[in-house]
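re: ur question from earlier - yeah i can do the single chain one, its not a big deal. heres the input i used so u can compare w yours
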Amino acid sequence: MQLELDTLNNNNTWELVSRPNNTKILKSRWVYKIKDIETISPIFKSRFVAKGFEQLYGLNYIETYASVIKQIAWKLVFALAILYNLIIFKADMVSAFTQGTIDALLYLEQPEGFIDPKNPNSVLKLNKALYGLKQSARIWFYTLKPKLLKLRFKVLNTESCLFINNNTKVIICLYVDDLAILAPNKSIFNNFINSISKDFKIKNLGVIKDYLGINIDLNLNKGYIKLNQATYINKVLNKYNL
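and the output i got, formated as C-alpha cells:
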C-alpha cells in the first residue's frame, strides 16, 4: 500500500489542499488483488482508486468513451506476423491511468489508513487521472496517442488502436495499457521501448506468451502461431472444484 502511494506521489497525481466549501468530494477506497495465485510466488497488489460511481455527469466528467483494439484485428495482425516474420513482444504501461492530466476539477478524500495527521480534514486535489474515475481510460488513450504520432506512427483508418510505423516496421496493438508490439528484431523493439520510456513508465515483458487472457504459442522458425485459453479454463475449473 505504501509502495502504491509512493508511486502516486512521485507522479504528482495530487496535492493536499484545504477542504473546499460547497464542493463534492469523491470518496476513495483500496482494491486488493493477488496475481499469479496458482504459482509458487503469487504477487500481492494494492491499488488506491476513486469511487467513480459518485461522479456527476457534466460536473465531474463529460466524455468517457475510449477505443480498444478489436479481437479480430489483433488476431489478424498476429497472423500477419508469421507471414512477414515479425517477432511479437509484449509491454505493459506502469500505472497508465495516472500518467494523463485530469480534465476536470476533482477532489478526493485521503486514503484510508494514510490520512495526514497534521491535516486530517484536508483533501486531495487531483492533477492526474486516477483508477476508478469514469474518464480515466479516455484520458490515457489521448495521452498516449500524440506521443506515438510524434514517433512517426500512423493510425490505421479502420482500427483506431492499431499504430504502424512504416520506417521501422513496428506495429502496435493497443488495448488500454496492454501493448502487443510487432517488430522485425529485438534491437528495433528495444529502440522503441527506449523512445517511449522518455515519456512513460513502461515494463518490457519480452516475447509475448499471452495477450488479453489468451495464451500464445509463437514459433517463427516453424512458421506457426497457436492461441488457446487453457489458463482461463483451468482457473474456472479450479474455482468451482471441477
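The chain has five helices and 15 strands. not sure if urs matches, ping me
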